[in-house]
Amino acid sequence: MNKNQKCVVMGVTGGIAAYKACEIVSRLKKLGYDVVVVMTKNATEFVTPLTFETLTNNPVCVGMFDRIQTWEVEHIALAKRADLFLIAPATANFIGKLNAGIADDMLTTTVMATRAPVLIAPAMNTNMYENPVTQRNIRQLEAQGYQFVEPESGRLACGDVGRGRLAQVETIVERAVELLCSK
Ligand SMILES: Cc1cc2nc3c(=O)[nH]c(=O)nc-3n(C[C@H](O)[C@H](O)[C@H](O)COP(=O)(O)O)c2cc1C
After folding, report:
1. Ligand 1 binding pocket includes 108 (Cβ within 6 Å)
2. Which of 34, 65, 133, 152 would bridge with 5, disulfide CB 3.0–4.6 Å?
3. How far apart are CA 61 and CA 77, in angstroms?
4. Residue 30 and residue 135: Cα distance in Å, rounded?
C-alpha cells in the first residue's frame, strides 16, 4: 500500500453485477488510485477474491476475523485509510443493513467506521429496487449524507425489464473521481 496514493475502499456485495466491479476496480487502478476491496461472503459466490487481489495488488478482506496481518485492527485502519468508500454493486440487503445500523460483517463494519464520503451504486431486480422498503432506506441514507449512483432501466439478468441495472461503469468511475478530487 503506497501511503501517498489516494485510496478507494471498494465494497462488493452479492449481486449478479459483481463481475462489473472488476472493471470499475481496473479503471480506478489505471487512474492511479490505490484500491482495497472488501467483499461480503455472498459476493464471493459471484467473483473470487483472487480476481480482485490480482487487479489491485492488495489483499481482499472478506471475513471479520480473518488474519491478513496488514492492518492492526483491520476494519478501523481500512476505514481511516479510505479517501472514498465505494460500494458497487450494492444489494438491497446491504442497503437495508446500513440503514438499520447493522454491522455484522467486514463490509458493514468498515463502512460504519469510516468518515470518508460513501458512494453507493445499487443493483437489483426492479421489484426489489422499487420496493418501498428499499426506497425508504435509500432516502434515509441520502438524508444522512450517503451518496447514490442511480441504477439504470433496461433488461435485467433475471429477464425483467425496469429500473435496477447497475449504472454504467463510466458513470460510477466519474462520480468516484469527482468525490476524490473534491476531498
Ligand atoms: C443468482 C443471484 C443473483 C442475485 N442478484 C442480486 C442482485 O443483483 N441484487 C440484490 O440485491 N440481490 C441479489 N441476490 C440476492 C443476494 O445475493 C442476497 O440478498 C444476499 O443475502 C446478499 O448478501 P450481501 O448483501 O451480504 O452480499 C442474488 C442472488 C442470486 C442467487
Report:
1. no
2. 34
3. 12
4. 34
Mean pLDDT of all residues belonging to the chain: 93
Which residue carries 476496480 as its cell? Answer: 25
Atom of ligand 1 nearest to the CA of 90: 11
State the Cα–Cα distance between residues 167 and 71, nearest whole angstrom.
32
Residues 6+ positions from 181 with CB-CB distance below 8 Å? none
Q: Which among 85, 84, 55, 82 has a CA at the least distance from the CA of 71?
A: 82
Q: Which three cell numbers stand for residue 154?
A: 433496461
Query: Domains (ranges, CATH) in the chain?
Result: 7-163+173-182 (3.40.50.1950)
Q: What is the pLDDT of residues 80-110, one digit of tens each?
A: 899 999 999 999 999 999 999 999 999 999 9
What is the grid cell recorded at 107? 463490509
**Host H or E run for residue 138:** helix 132-143
Residues in the chain: 183
**Cβ(117) to ligand 1 under 6 A?**
no
Pairing label, strands 152-155, 161-165: antiparallel
Residue written as grid cell 476494519: 75
User: How far is it, in rounded angstroms, from Cα 180 to Cα 5?
Assistant: 11
The secondary element (H helix, E strand) that includes residue 77 is: helix 74-81
Residue type, 85: F
